[in-house]
Predict the structure.
Amino acid sequence: MGTGINKRQMTKDLVIFQKAAFDNACYALSLWQDQTARLVRCFLEKAPWFAEDGKEIIAEWVMRYKQNRGAFKAYADANYRKAIAYCGEPEGAAKQENKNENRA
């Protein structure tokens, strides 16, 4: 419209910035969780009074945290990719795609 501001590009840049912030936060959280897991493992190795069943439960708990942390990150990355791809489409592409889906 002649304003010189490309709203779609601004939105895409904002999403990319948010993804970078999210990636940094996830990385920091991962480091913190991994360090905490190492500390807990060292503590449990030196605690003879702690039951073996309890140690196994905590080890499984740590493993599940790592798995779910990775799954959450993958899910978020996939949705950031979708948002970035959506922002990169030309103005009429999304409307045309919806029309084609409705015909099928």
Summary: The CA atoms of residues 9 and 74 lie 24 Å apart. The chain has a mean pLDDT of 85. The radius of gyration is 23 Å.
